[in-house]
Structures are given as structure tokens and as C-alpha cells.
Amino acid sequence: MSDHRHGDIYPDEFVREILDSVKTIALVGASANPNKPSHAVLKDLLSKGYQVLPVNPRPDVTEIAGLPVYDTLAAIDRSVDMVDVFRPANELAGLAREAVAIQARVLWGQLDIVDEQAAAIARAGGLQVVMDRCPSIELARTH
């Protein structure tokens, strides 16, 4: 058993530059439940000055933390710098295609979310990729 995570492959400077350059983050898998990690990360990113756009396809979830919820990335009506994914790894490739389609700059997979096919799709579409890391943890650690 290794103590290393997939996310360890990304140099701190690379991660820091991404977090310093993005302003608008689409958070896919955002939850209205304050006990869920995606909700805590959304609130933390908001507190650090990012514009966060919650994405959740459930029709009964129309607002999270006072923000309107989008049902898909394609439904977002403004440019998105980063797509932060709180969904199972097997959904990442499809989300990578959607992130390319909306011309995001970064595809970010949360802790334990790794899919090399998705990374290849995103990179081929011109996106930077980070997987198996949490932006909230990285902001606390590197800033």
C-alpha cells in the first residue's frame, strides 16, 4: 500500500497558479445539504472571493447557499474558468467533454476522482487538469 495519492503528481506551483488565475468555478455535484463536503467547499470558495456556480440536475434543488442552481454545465449563461467535480469518477469523461464544450480552462476532479480518459479529453480540448485534490485544502495549504 502506498502513501501517495494520484493528486501528488501535480506540483504545488501548478496548483497554486490555477487557483490564483481562476475566478468563476462551476461546482458539479453541489449539494444543498450543509453536511456534505461539496456544500462546505462551495461555501469556502465563496468566502475566498470566487464566483461559484452550483450544478445539480435535481429539479427540486433550485438554490444552494443563496445561489441559483444550473442543471448542466451547458445551462450556465456566462464563461466558466474551472469545472470542479464532486461526482463519481465514471462520470468524469462526460463532464470533461462538457467542460471542453463550454470552453472552460480547467477540469478539476475532487479527492479520489481520477479518470485518465477524462484527463486526455480535457487536455486535448485545451484545458489544464487536476484530479484527486480539493481546492479548499489546496488554498489552505498553499496560500
From TrEMBL:
Enumerate the spans annotated as CoA-binding domain.
18-113
Q: What is this protein called?
A: CoA-binding protein
Q: What PANTHER family has UniProt attached to this entry? A: COA-BINDING DOMAIN-CONTAINING PROTEIN, CYTOPLASMIC PROTEIN-RELATED
- Cite the InterPro entries for this sequence: CoA-bd (IPR003781), NAD(P)-bd_dom_sf (IPR036291)
Q: According to the lineage, what is the superkingdom? A: Bacteria
Q: Which Gene3D superfamilies match?
A: NAD(P)-binding Rossmann-like Domain (3.40.50.720)
